[in-house]
Amino acid sequence: MKSEKDAEQTETESQGEPDPVIQEDNENEEADISYEEINDETIAFIQLLESFKVSIEVINKFLANGYDAESLKVIERREIEELLCEPFLGDRTKIIHGLNVWRKSQNLQPVSSPLKLVQNLPQPKDQPETKQREMFSAKFLINKSAKGKQILETYKLSRILTKSQKRMITHIVIDEFKDVFGKLTHIELLSRADELGDLFPTESKESWYQPTFALVAGKKTRLGHLPKGCLYDRNCNYTALQASQQKSNDSENITPPCSPYDADYCRDVAYSMLLPYILPCSVLTLLNKSKWKPSYIENRNSFVFWVQNITDLQSKVKAHHISRSENRGMLPCPLVVVVGPELTQLNTFIISFGDAFYRLPTFLKALDVCYKLHKVYNLPFAKECAGSWNLINHVIYDFPLENSCRAKILSIINVINTGS
Q: Are 276 and 296 in contact (CB under 8 A)?
């Protein structure tokens, strides 16, 4: 009897006192578990995803890739499709539907418009469009473009990328892609920034594209309030051409420009702008008796003035007239102005006369009207480019040859007559 009581007492004592070995194992398990504090924004973000009735694995995917409530306002459908592939297709549908409803309540654009029936069908892994989208990398598009290859070769020699060259590279990389596939995703912008950083190492990758957040040493770090960079700006601002408007898959239509230029009026402008170089101005005596030898650029600008942006037209032309009248003491003259980002992409032809601007349909028409304004109002030609006007005056309009560059003009006429 006593032995049974002793056994019960021993069992009771063993239950009351924990086993030290088991206690030590529990402490080791607790030590192996790491806890991470989350802020209120992350909690709200998780609750928003939970309201879409998706699995915890999907929520973890969003958290692991650095998404938050702000990024859900701008996320693209293609990014969701890349993030949630098989076997999360059902959750992907819930996410897209939930985001459309949520973003509509926030007065934001939905993730995307409903897909067509054909687009909802399962697509094979070797779908041609997917291959083409991946194939249209920055290096591919630059090497596909005649202008891009030229800029790349120039950079290899000088190690300098000018602002205009950087803008052209940005247009080649973004425009050609958007014309075919639409807007680039965050991942695609990062990939192209890395490619361009390798091609042009003197330009920082952040100047091409800098996202709002980045993973630094495994931690999510805010880089700025908003994404920035020339790739990002062009991706947002450029409107892709419709299929009927596309001539090819390259900014310069894949093939190099026609020789010498694609359009007749661009060719006419180029030839006319060469006249001041063939018939340069000699040293001029100004009203204050000082001497001035116009440069080739000053000579050309007084004959045909090129403006790259229509918004700068009035200010630049006015500055040109003021420079001539105030600094040189010369009378204002009618001026032919051409507008376009490149000499191969001219789209506007204007005459500046006094404070007025007159738009003409073609360059030759503008040149003709400008010449006749000189004659009708009995205005002398600008002294810097008098030789160019004298050639037109005599050869085209058959007026007597004036003194400016007389000998050179006679030589040119002789060469023309001999050649014909």
A: yes
DSSP letter for each residue of 127-175: -HHHHHHHH--HHHHHHHSHHHHHHHHHHHHH----HHHHHHHHHHHHH
Q: Please give the helix or strand (H or E) that residue 358 lies within, else none.
A: strand 356-360
DSSP code of residue 340:
-
**How far is the C-alpha of 354 from the C-alpha of 372, rounded, in Å?**
15
Provide the CA 8 distance to its chain's centre, in angstroms.
85
d(CA 271, CA 283): 24
Contact 148, 165 (CB under 8 A): no
Q: How many other CB atoms are there within 10 angstroms of residue 419's CB atom?
A: 6
Strand pairing report for 291-292 and 284-285: antiparallel
d(CA 388, CA 11): 118
What stretch(es) of the chain map to CATH 1.10.150? 40-114
CATH 1.10.3470 corresponds to the domain 40-114: no
Pairing verdict, β 356-360 and 213-216? unpaired
Q: Which residue has the tokens 């040493």?
A: 217
C-beta separation of 261 from 272 below 8 A: no
CA distance 404 to 387: 5
- The Cα 85–Cα 101 span in angstroms is 22
Tens-place pLDDT, residues 146-187: 888 989 998 988 888 888 889 999 999 998 888 888 888 888
Q: What is the CA radius of gyration of the chain?
A: 35
- What is the pLDDT at residue 369? 94
Give the H or E element holding residue 306: strand 304-307
How many Å apart are CA 239 and CA 75, to the nearest integer?
19
pLDDT digits (tens, 9 = 90+) for 210-269: 888 777 777 777 777 788 889 988 888 888 665 445 544 444 443 344 434 445 678 889
| Rounded-to-integer distance, Cα 370 and Cα 368, Å | 5
Residue 114: CB partners within 8 Å, gap ≥ 6? none
CA distances from 368 to 118, 259, 274, 372 (A): 57, 25, 17, 6
Cα distance between residue 408 and residue 176, in whole Å = 47
Rounded (5°) CA angle 264-268-273? 150
> Which amino acid is residue 33, in one-letter code?
I
Sign of CA dihedral 107, 111, 112, 114: negative
